[in-house]
Design brief:
Distance between the termini: 157 Å
Structural class: alpha+beta
Strand order of the largest sheet: 2-8-5-4-3
Oligomer: single chain
Helix content: 25-40%
Organism: Torulaspora globosa
Protein name: Ribonuclease H2 subunit B
Pfam families: RNase_H2-Ydr279, Ydr279_N
GO cellular component, one term: nucleoplasm
Order of helices and strands: EEEEEHEEEHHHEEHHHH
Keywords: Nucleus
Strand content: 5-15%
Largest sheet: 5 strands, mixed
Number of domains: 2
Number of strands: 10
Number of helices: 8
Amino acid sequence: MTICEGAKDMLMILPASMASQQGPHSLFSLPHSSNNASKKRVTLIEPKAGEIYELRRHQFSKGSSFNTQSDLAAEKYHYTANQEPLKSTFLTNEADRKDGRVMEAGDIHFATRFDLSYCLIGYYYGDSTSQDEKEYEQDSEAESAVARGRMNCLTVRDYHDHLVDNHDSQWANVSLESLEMALRKVAEPTEEAGSTFYKLTEGKIIEYLANKVTRLAQNLPKSLNISADLPADILECAKVTLAADLLVSLIPKHTYFRLKRFSPAAGAEHIADIKNSCDRYETYKRSVKQSVEEKELLVKAAMTVGLPTGKTKTSVVKKVTKKSVVVRKQKGSIDGFFKPAKRANPSANP
């Protein structure tokens, strides 16, 4: 067993199609399709033309940022000075236990298929930027103007050069085959003089995303807790709403708002009516909330019947002071008539 020191060795899980290919593969990166400042560039690899994978990283024994403080208090994880988890990786060969490696890093890298169309969507809505996903919570009615240069009608090769010059220089690492596959999904094609021209349009982009939402709503992750007590029609609306919300991490803010207001054309029954589903689900949640609040008020009122409310009416007793009226003696014409008689002197002789 080989012991690897330092962080130079990296464990990478690649698709089976790359196992038979010889020679090194170059990595490149493109701006994140959401135009979100909190999201890093995506690391990509194209082993062959028309096949692009995103290289992701998974760290063992590292909690989420939401639980950082509680994890530190409980000493659940241990980190180095560079905030890297103290963890080793053991890679063994089941057929020969001696054939193995021990790496100091506690993380792995794995490749997953990547849809380049999202990068084209991010380029088209280049003026729709955000600092974090909290800005997606408040719908903005303000229209985001699309630069005229992003609405050009170009061939695949011209589009390739245009993206290299006007978006990111590392588009040069993307093959023309992969770019054309992405353009077919989100751009309007036009045949002229034996050549195919593509033009990015909002209608094509939103329709493509609406189809994604429709398929995703039928296969939502089981980790999403959706109440089984919902009425059947409201349950379907809830699935469509949650499916649209899952795209927040992949598309720009303005694109998300436009997607939430999407209604398919008449006759397009295979695409979900996202606007109607979101409106009905929000209305249902408000009605349930209002009903719960009313029941709580009724229960509270029933429990307080006949009980003092805590505010008793007190009667104020006023102290009455008896006033004596003093009449001042005055001298009048008959005052002398009522003079008191003089008392007799007992010592006087008769």
